Amino acid sequence: MSIKSKALHRRRWLIAVAGAVSVPLAMTGCGKADDSANVDCTAYAEYGEHKDTEVSIYSTVRDAEADQLTASWKDFQSCTGIKIDYEGTGDFETQIGIRVNGGNAPDIAIFPQPGLMATFADKLKPASDKVKELATANYTQDWINYGTVNGTLYGTSFDANVKSFVWYSPKLFADKGYTVPTTWAELITLTDKIKADGIDTPWCAGIESGEATGWPATDWVEDMVLRTAGPEVYDQWVKHEIPFNDPKIVAALERVGTILRNPEYVGDVKSIATTSFQAGGLPILDGKCGLHRQASFYAAQWPEGTKVAEDGDVFAFYLPGDDAANKPLLGAGQFVTAFADRPEVETVRQFLAGGTFFNERMKKGPFTTANNKADISNAADPVIKLSMELLRDTTVTFRFDASDLMPAEVGASKFWTEMTAWIAEGKDTKAALDAIEGAWPA
């Protein structure tokens, strides 16, 4: 999966490219696609017919992924008669407000984070009973919660990514007899073994990302808060019910420092701030690094020809905490919402909450979803398969990326810059967190 600059979208999982695209599909005069006679409509019978209707969808998905997306609902259009007029944009966060306030809201908007979605709750249409039924049947409660504002469900999960991963070389593990750690203590023991076996930098990292420099370090912190303080404290932290510089957050960042600010583990600490996140894990391929913490979408950063698999050149394992039986999971994703409630809009909304769409989408190219009706055998690669297994595991406690939920001046600004200073300048942990706390809006 590719990546968008978080400076623009506060999403770290799509490649940014210039411009927006509009991708309507060709329709016949009766409202069905030209090749409808060749489509088996059995899977779409439940959606009925809505001839000569049109539904607009607006999201951040563009270019090759937009082509895959629109191809995923081509048969749905043919069988229902609904024309989907799709538009992807590189400026969603700004333009959605302009469009809504200007009376030009799309019928359906796919929001890149629940915090932004919540700011439009008074203008969004609540989920129908049928959509709520589909959400309950197809997603864990954590995902339903993130689509809910003040007790009302507005958004259903679209795509997803997992951030709690450590990338490694299966060949190195096999050659050295290493096993995947299941606790933090085992992870540190493994780190020391890698160091003792001659790899000078057991961990590699990079947090440079243009205007968004620092965001990979914030992901580290979020994962550690979940593991050292627990999901309840994490939720309090996100909502500012406890201060950003609370002792529990200090302790979490200090644990991050045992790796990222330890020259015995990472070599030149300051160089992490000038190493791009895209290049951060690449030393694994030439044996100069053993481990790299980065999200599932990092699979797209390995050079062409790299085999990503348990028996390949690189693979990933779950970042463990103190207790192997306790599995907090950090991730992110988008949410399908509606600004209109016409029958054809409701039908598309149901389609995008069920399993048929997701199975079609996964067949078209790399795509990760938390929808439990999606067939994991359709996963484009083993990391997507592993991600989906974790996302639908009811024993896993999922939490959305904290900085995407916090006010922009904190999560998409001060948090980044202070983590950069913490690494590049060796800034004191408490002082860095004090500065972030001071940026929280009154």
UniProtKB/TrEMBL annotation:
<feature type="signal peptide">
    <location>
        <begin position="1"/>
        <end position="28"/>
    </location>
</feature>
<keyword id="KW-0813">Transport</keyword>
<protein>
    <submittedName>
        <fullName>Alpha-glucoside transport system substrate-binding protein</fullName>
    </submittedName>
</protein>
<keyword id="KW-0732">Signal</keyword>
<dbReference type="InterPro" id="IPR050490">
    <property type="entry name" value="Bact_solute-bd_prot1"/>
</dbReference>
<dbReference type="Pfam" id="PF01547">
    <property type="entry name" value="SBP_bac_1"/>
</dbReference>
<dbReference type="InterPro" id="IPR006059">
    <property type="entry name" value="SBP"/>
</dbReference>
<comment type="similarity">
    <text>Belongs to the bacterial solute-binding protein 1 family.</text>
</comment>
